[in-house]
Amino acid sequence: MKFIIAIEPGDDTHSFGVVVPDLPGCVSAGDTIDEAIANAHEAIDLWCETVLADGGNIPVGKTITEHQKDPEFGGWVWALVDVPVEKYLGPAEKINITVPRLLLSRIDDYARAHGATRSGFLVQAARAAMAAQP
Prior knowledge:
The protein folds into two domains: 1-90, Double Stranded RNA Binding Domain; 92-134. The chain is elongated. The protein has helices at residues 33-53, 64-68, 101-113, 118-132, and strands at residues 2-8, 16-19, 27-30, 77-82. A four-stranded antiparallel sheet has the order 3-2-1-4, covered by helices on one side. It is an alpha+beta fold. The two termini are 24 Å apart.
């Protein structure tokens, strides 16, 4: 799963700070930007493992553009990290669903245009729909 991170620039006396804005309280740091990103990867993995073990859900993320509007992150650097948290969700199951041909074609086109697979897109769409419901 891909996560957006915001990196607060460091210098000779300050570490690079990292915030994962879509995961409340998930923060990290590192003496170099590479170390900060690696540590963020570890923090995201631990955050997701803990929340899912406690019966919670991984929130649906916002876009980088949406996060950049937050003045708290002014001047920060943005990155995307891929953390394989699916291992905490259980094994994938193959299912058979019925979808109108035209809609399926549009789903495939949309997923392909956004670097996703059909299955990945449908899972993300389902997560977003369930997160929007109380």
